[in-house]
Amino acid sequence: MTQNSRFDVRVRLAADGVVTLPGVLGPDWLGHLERALDEALARPSPLGQQFAGDRGGFHSDLYLSHAFPAFRSFVTESGIARAMAEATGLSQVVLFTDELLVKEPRTPIDTPWHHDYSYWPLSGEAVYSIWIPLDDVRRDTGALEFVRGSHLWGQAYHPKSFDTGADRVTHAAEQPVPDVDAVVDPADRIVAECEPGDCVLFHARTLHRASGNPGPGRRRAIVLRLVGPDVRFDPRPHTLPLIWAPRLSPGEPLAADPLFPTVWSGVA
Ligand SMILES: O=C(O)CCC(=O)C(=O)O
Question: Which atom of ligand 1 is nearest to the CA of 223?
């Protein structure tokens, strides 16, 4: 990224809570990820899930880098963590988890409107995802859609089940996700259509969804959950399980436990 485009990306990310980074990955890393994904789908972890029931296939799994060296080498060697640091200005990037989210052909399951922050045992501001599609994604084939600027609304929302679209938990400190169709100006809805090699970087408080994948092709995505040095371990009873319990006390920085490796540090 040039100095000017880096500045432009940071301004857009800060204002919108999402930015598409075009052409971050070349064919070699995309091929590497495709092979790694096949390996992970064949050998799911105890946290692996299938959300779509008998309506196709919507697979998810987490902590891929801890089980598969090919994912670890992707995170540390492909330049993806540096790209994230350049886009955010962070001086240290820690991997909270990496996941796969695959919608098989003819899986008409929308991913419901939600934001990620309330799913995770974290506090702090620099909490981001970088979503990496391995297939062309359009508005109706599983592209992500965002509500511009919703990371700045100062709200925490009940986490949704990806299976049913219902609230997973209704913790009193959180609000129901608003009815986006009713309250958001269509001009403030951003559909992040991508081709393989592009990545979508978004803040954990930005509301987002994805369409189902009713067509004949797969919609394969890997997503890295990356955090900055201000982020602390904040276990709460209703957050998602981790693959193993970190030896961290509440309030400690994530990087103090090997579950959360530092994948980049420096001045981007
Ligand atoms: O890939 C999807 O369908 C949803 C992705 C998502 O919600 C996320 O990565 O936070």
Answer: 9
Q: Where are the domains of the chain?
A: 3-230
Question: Which CATH number applies to 3-230?
Answer: 2.60.120.620
Give tens-digit pLDDT for 195-207: 999 999 999 999 9
Q: Which tokens belong to 185?
A: 């100006």
- The answer to whether the CB of 33 falls within 8 A of the CB of 132 is yes
Q: For ligand 1, is residue 129 a contact (CB within 6 Å)?
A: yes
Phi and psi at residue 22, to the nearest 5°: -80, 145
Q: Which atom of ligand 1 is nearest to the CA of 209?
A: 7
Six token digits for residue 107: 């899986």
Separation of alpha carbons 255 and 173, rounded Å: 27
Report pLDDT digits (tens) over 135-186.
Answer: 999 999 999 999 999 999 999 999 998 888 888 878 878 899 999 999 999 9
pTM of the model: 0.96
